[in-house]
């Protein structure tokens, strides 16, 4: 009789603990949002006193772009930093017909490329202040680790704030 009671109590604890663990695991990995409208992103950066991180990518043809996205931009370290410090903007240049952007978005991305990436480098990532002034530019996949990349962003931002 004692054993049965202990087993029921243990089973009851497990039933409460399992959803809690699932909830923690589900929400410990969060997503960050990427803005596609540059003017909206600039306004958001001004309103929240953040910097803009503008990423030029070729999502369906550029291998280094996909690697940078997977290894850096989708890492938990980067997402946690970006969540409280950056407004993220993606200027994508897909080549496959099925991935073509709406005309207005493509025109905006072309204009951004003329201003911020005239060389046509992919990936190209820029740290901008809220007015759109370039503070730092990375061409290709950044050297070093995700920690190094985040620290470099933070150093440039803090140097600017001082």
Give a quick set of tags describing it.
single chain, 162 residues, alpha/beta, Glutaredoxin, 2 domains, globular
**What name goes with the CATH superfamily of the largest domain?**
Glutaredoxin
Q: Roughly how many Å apart are the termini?
A: 70 Å
> What is the number of helical segments per DSSP (H or I, 4+ residues)?
6
What overall geometry do the principal axes of the alpha carbons give? globular
Following the backbone from N to C, one meets helices and strands in this order, namely: HEHEHHEHEEH
Q: How would you summarize what this structure contains?
A:
This protein has 162 residues and is of the alpha/beta class.
Topology:
Layout: H1 2-28, E1 34-35, H2 38-48, E2 51-57, H3 63-73, H4 76-85, E3 86-92, H5 103-116, E4 124-128, E5 134-139, H6 146-161
Parallel strand pairs: 1-3, 2-3
Antiparallel strand pairs: 2-4, 4-5
Describe the overall structure:
There is one protein chain. With 162 residues, the protein is of the alpha/beta class. It has two domains: 1-30; 31-161, Glutaredoxin (3-Layer(aba) Sandwich). Helix content is 55%, strand content 17%. The protein has six helices and five strands. A five-stranded mixed sheet has the order 1-3-2-4-5, sandwiched between helices. A hairpin with a 5-residue loop joins strand 4 and strand 5 (134-139). The protein starts with a helix and ends with a helix.
């Amino acid at each position: 009789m004692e054993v049965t009671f202990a087993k029921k109590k243990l089973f009851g604890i497990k039933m409460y603990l399992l959803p809690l663990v699932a909830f923690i695991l589900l929400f410990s990995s969060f997503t960050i949002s990427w803005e596609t409208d540059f003017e909206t992103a600039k306004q958001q950066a001004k309103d929240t006193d953040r910097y803009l991180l503008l990423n030029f990518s070729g999502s369906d043809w550029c291998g280094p772009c996909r690697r940078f996205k997977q290894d850096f931009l989708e890492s938990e370290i980067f997402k946690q930093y970006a969540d409280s410090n950056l407004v993220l903007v993606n200027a994508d240049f897909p080549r496959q017909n099925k991935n073509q952007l709406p005309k207005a978005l493509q025109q905006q991305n072309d204009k951004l490329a003329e201003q911020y990436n005239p060389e046509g480098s992919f990936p190209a990532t820029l740290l901008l202040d809220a007015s759109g002034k370039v503070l730092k530019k990375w061409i290709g996949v950044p050297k070093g680790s995700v920690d190094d990349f985040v620290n470099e962003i933070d150093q440039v931002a803090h140097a600017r704030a001082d």
